[in-house]
Amino acid sequence: MRNIAIIAHVDHGKTTLVDQLFRQSGTFRDNQRVEERAMDSNDLEKERGITILAKPTSVEWEGTRINIVDTPGHADFGGEVERILSMVDGVILLVDSSEGAMPQTKFVTGKALKLGLRPIVVVNKVDRPDERIQEVLDEVFDLFVSLEATDEQLDFPVLYASGRNGYANDDPSLREGTLTPLFQKIVDHVPPPALDKDAPFTFLVTLLDRDNFLGRILTGRVTSGTVKVNQPIHALDMGGNVIETGRASKIMSFRGLERVPVDEASAGDIISLAGLTVATVSNTIADTSVSDAIQAQPIDPPTLSMRFAVNDSPMAGREGSKVTSRMIRDRLFREAESNVAIKVTEAADKDSFEVAGRGELQLGVLIETMRREGFELGISRPRVLYREEDGQRTEPYETVVIDVDDEHSGTVVEKMNLRKAEMTDMRPSGGGKTRITFSAPSRGLIGYHGEFLSDTRGTGIMNRLFEKYGPYKGVIEGRKNGVLISNGSGEANAYSLNTLEERGILFVGHGEALYEGMVIGENAKTDDLEVNPMKAKQLSNVRSSGKDDAIRLTPPKKMTLEQAIAYIDDDEMVEVTPKTIRLRKRYLDPHERKRASRAKQAA
Fold first, then answer.
1. Residue 308 is inside which H or E element, if any?
2. ∠ CA 234-235-236, rounded to 5°
3. Which among 535, 531, 487, 472 is positioned nearest to 506, based on CA atoms?
4. What is the DSSP letter of 420?
5. Packing angle between helix 103-114 and helix 133-146, nearest 10 degrees?
């Protein structure tokens, strides 16, 4: 048996490679219909083309069972990866033959090297026309040295592969073959689990799942001993205290994409276990004779938080089925239970919750998931979590790596300087592109991504990674433009919207339902402006209906959830329902807005 994790940056092809490992190991029947990127199983993963949840699977190759864990490549989901690494004995580090080692690669690789895991480096996409294989290998070696890898870890084997075409070779010039060299390298290089099968049963929970029939399903690796169905077990917390006692009602092992029931599992097996109702991630499940807990990996703290509130707009409850604070509370606490990188605290008013996570993408995915489940929410602007160190206020910083066409590099540097970022490296990356590295406060990056894509005509690529807590950088300029606010409730009218187009960019079209305090567009000037978008043309003998030219409106700017969250200011909210995303002011009444604004200035 071999246990490995595949780690890589977003879009470097790890899930596609796992597809080919399935095919070439005979996991699928010849006539079986299999979707592309089979491991990306939930809807959001398929739509976005990224891995969000870490998932174990296994393949059989020439008598050896290889358990593979597909991990997320995005640092926002790093909490998944940190726990997963305790289940495996080796890692495959996948790097793109052109892009090379990226920030997220550094994040996960650092965690793996600290645990003493020996990596196998696979240079993927060697058939790209812009490949630079040797330079990429030098980058990987430098990365390992900077992460203080041991001599044994630095002596890593290298394979050159194309995951999509299903070949891996020792020779970088070959463009054909199968993945047999990769299977062989895993068997030769990754040690089998060196665990005691005769000791009492212990098992560290790394993933938590729910099943309508089996209840709570705990996934992890058996650290020692053997477990059988209906064996008495208990759960221990980090301090070794017993949380609950029960029986192993069902044991399931991974076979390809399926979870298969088994009668027993022994040390080294990656399994899912049902039968307990309270135990959660990082708890130890063990034989009732065991009293010492297994030490779990410490998880990096959250750096960003948002307020999730009950939707209190005039249109609340029209589209969603889950609108009460109790339902929202239960759902958020259930999420925090299985996702250790998220922390939830209830506000004093009981109608809102502070949800802290790793980044905008992670919280955006949570909101999108809840929205599809039928929830209605009011979401505040993200804010960073400060800390006090030696009496000084500190804030989170991120390493930002930007790949951009040479012509746009000046604009990017200028915009990042405005956001208090410091440039740490700038070099040409070939093909008329420049790679620029910054150390930037997380606060300055909120809402920058959309502006960045506009500035680079959609060609720039930005990657971010939590770096450290550093000194507070002072005031950072936010959004420069004000917004257009509806001064009443009703339906948007084309006649009125036509005149408002001169004022700025509109977010709503003709016939859309509006309410007082709703943000309907961006003002061309810096201050907010209350407007009447519902005013119809007064028809009379003087103003006949046929005299004017037909009104031609510019299509409104429709924002995605992430864009809306990044766009709003401190006094605004995003109203999220299963069908609609609306922007609104926190206080819908203009008098309350003025009162809140005066109170803020006085403070």
1. strand 304-310
2. 125
3. 531
4. T
5. 50
524-529, Cβ contacts within 8 angstroms, sequence gap of 24 or more: 524/481, 525/481, 525/482, 526/480, 526/481, 526/482, 527/482, 528/482, 528/483, 528/484, 528/485, 529/482, 529/483, 529/484, 529/485, 529/503
Residue 296 and residue 223 in contact, taking contact as beta carbons nearer than 8 Å: no
CA distances from 577 to 335, 370, 384, 448 (A): 19, 9, 25, 25
Whole-angstrom distance, CA of residue 304 vs CA of residue 397: 11
pTM of the full predicted structure? 0.74
| Nearby residues of 550 by Cβ (< 8 Å), 6 or more positions away | none
**Nearest alpha-carbon partner for 273 in 245, 248, 247, 242:** 248
- pLDDT of 111-128, one tens digit each? 788 888 888 888 888 888
Q: Which residue has the tokens 């997320």?
A: 72
Q: Is the pLDDT reported for residue 578 higher than 70?
A: yes
CA 156 to chain centre: 29
Interval 360-402: pLDDT, tens: 777 888 888 898 889 999 998 888 888 888 888 888 888 888 8
Task: Measure CA 494 to chain center.
Answer: 39
Residue-wise pLDDT tens digits, 487-522: 989 898 888 888 888 888 899 888 889 999 999 999
260 membership: H or E segment, kind and range: strand 258-262
Measured between alpha carbons, how far is 100 from 603 in angstroms, rounded to an integer?
Answer: 49
Q: How far is Cα 65 from Cα 266, in angstroms, rounded to an integer?
A: 14
